[in-house]
Design a protein that fits this description.
104 residues; mainly alpha; two-stranded antiparallel ribbon
């Protein structure tokens, strides 16, 4: 539990807690960060990368878009775009702390 939740629950690190989880069928959330134009353009230029991107689970897309939104420099953007496109095109490699093979 994070610090705020622990504080509100009146517990400290090491305390045993009981947690209840419920499914919210009305919940619908997509990527919270828009797709950067530079990434959208790169995907449009390569149908295989675009197809592999479309096949990724929504959680993976959200993770990548959140990561891209946090990049501060154009060098970091260019470096990470190249890595992302390489793995989306099917090359084996590591991107976002994951092993990729065949575009997934």
């Amino acid at each position: 539990m994070n610090g705020r939740v622990r504080s509100e629950a009146g517990v400290v690190v090491g305390d045993a807690v009981q947690v209840e989880v419920m499914f919210d069928a009305a919940y619908s959330n997509g990527p919270q960060h828009p797709m950067p134009s530079w990434f959208k353009q790169a995907l449009k230029q390569n149908s295989l990368a675009e197809r592999n991107w479309s096949g990724l689970p929504p959680s993976r897309k959200k993770e990548i878009l959140r990561y891209f939104a946090g990049l501060k420099s154009s060098d970091a953007r260019d470096r990470n775009l190249a890595k992302c496109m390489r793995v989306l095109l099917g090359a084996e490699g590591r991107f976002m702390a994951r092993d990729w093979k065949n575009g997934v």
